[in-house]
Design brief:
Blueprint (H helix, E strand, L loop, with lengths): L1 H20 E17 L1 E2 L2 E2 L2 E5 L7 E11 L2 E12 L4 E2 L15 E8 L2 E9 L1 H10 L11 H4 L15 E9 L6 E8 L11 E10 L2 E11 L6 E12 L4 E11 L3 E14 L2 E12 L8 E11 L4 E12 L18 E10 L1
Antiparallel strand pairs: 1-4, 1-5, 1-20, 2-3, 5-6, 6-7, 6-8, 8-9, 9-10, 10-11, 11-12, 12-13, 13-14, 14-15, 15-16, 16-17, 17-18, 18-19, 19-20
Length: 350
């Protein structure tokens, strides 16, 4: 009996030590809903109904881990793939579907310590994180989200389907938080024949101390030949009044061969128990040769939490395009096909 007890104690100690040293977490989101597009863009009518797996959030499966290396130093990794749950397939093409779709949402490894965090791999851009985490009351999900007017379209020849959301072959440094200030800077190697072709530079600096959260971010990406570059700058803030959170943002964009705009966003979220009401208005002012191509977007959304991890949602988005503007109402991961859209669905986080 003593030998058995000793063996159990040793096994428990070794297991505990292993768990303390390194832990791998499996996580994900399952999102499924109904999407209806109505209306038109330009002279084309592109209405339709569909089941979608990415209205509020992109359905995903991920693995992340962190290992304590001692002396305050840790190793970490994230591998995350998009899932097209409505079709039973994958949902990311990295802007080049022929390259492959495994773990294309995020895939990076890094080191973390008192100096901050250094990561390498496919990662989110600082511009998108600012738009998603600070500027947009819809958090880049549902009809009416800020991506519709404040990110390059999927047809842009420089960003393609990545739309300034993610960057490949990137090295990113994130500072520790100091007196509520923090920042990050990243460089994405283009790895093209032309020097600096397809290169990405992005960074942000922010202040976050409840109730105020403010962040300034920049994004720049060269075309493959390194003869031109797409640029976006955003200043975003939100203020938590407890009974409501107010959002505001300004962005200046030069999306080569697509448009030049200045964006203005105002929005709010209002929590009432398990209910949350969401609203926003975004103005896109065309500039230069695109001065007549303006657009306004109105978005309304609603979520109801059935538990800490499961909620239902409904949302409506409408865009009024002027001149030759062709903005469409999308959701978290789909670009949309027309200027009006309605979403209704359920999301589970695990």
């Amino acid at each position: 009996m003593k030998k058995l007890n000793l063996a159990l104690v040793l096994a428990g100690a070794l297991t505990g030590a292993a768990q303390a040293q390194s832990a791998v977490e499996v996580y994900g989101i399952a999102d499924m809903g109904f999407a209806r597009w109505t209306g038109s863009v330009g002279s084309s009518v592109a209405a339709g109904d569909r089941i979608t797996s990415c209205a509020q959030s992109g359905t995903r499966l991920g693995f992340k881990g962190k290992e304590d290396l001692g002396n305050g130093l840790s190793a970490l990794f994230v591998l995350e793939t998009g899932i097209a749950a409505d079709l039973g397939g994958f949902n990311q093409g990295r802007g080049n579907p022929s390259v492959g779709t495994g773990f294309a949402r995020q895939s990076f490894i890094g080191l973390q310590g008192d100096f901050g965090t250094l990561t390498l791999g496919r990662q989110y851009t600082s511009y998108f994180l600012t738009l998603n985490q600070v500027a947009d009351p819809f958090a880049s999900g549902l009809a009416g989200n800020a991506q519709n007017l404040m990110l390059p379209g999927a047809a842009n020849t420089i960003t393609t389907s990545d739309r300034a959301i993610r960057m490949d072959n990137a090295i990113k440094y994130t500072t520790p938080v100091f007196e509520n200030f923090s920042g990050e800077i990243a460089y994405g190697f283009g790895e093209k024949a032309a020097a600096d072709g397809d290169r990405v530079i992005t960074g942000s600096v922010g202040y976050d101390s409840k109730p105020l959260n403010v962040r300034l971010a920049y994004y720049e990406r060269n075309n493959v030949a390194n003869t031109d570059s797409l640029k976006s700058t955003i200043l975003a803030a939100n203020y938590d009044l407890e009974f409501a959170k107010i959002y505001a943002a300004f962005a200046d964009n030069d999306w080569v061969d697509q448009t030049k705009t200045r964006n203005y966003l105002i929005g709010a979220t209002v929590p009432v128990g398990a209910h949350k009401f969401i609203a926003s208005f975004i103005r896109a002012d065309g500039r230069g040769a695109y001065a007549a191509n303006d657009a306004d977007q109105w978005g309304l959304g609603y979520t109801y939490s059935l538990s800490k991890r499961t909620n239902v949602y409904a949302a409506y988005g409408y865009i009024s395009n002027d001149g030759a503007a062709t903005y469409t109402v999308g959701n978290n991961s789909e670009n949309g096909t027309s200027n009006k859209a309605f979403n209704l669905g359920v999301r589970h986080v695990f």
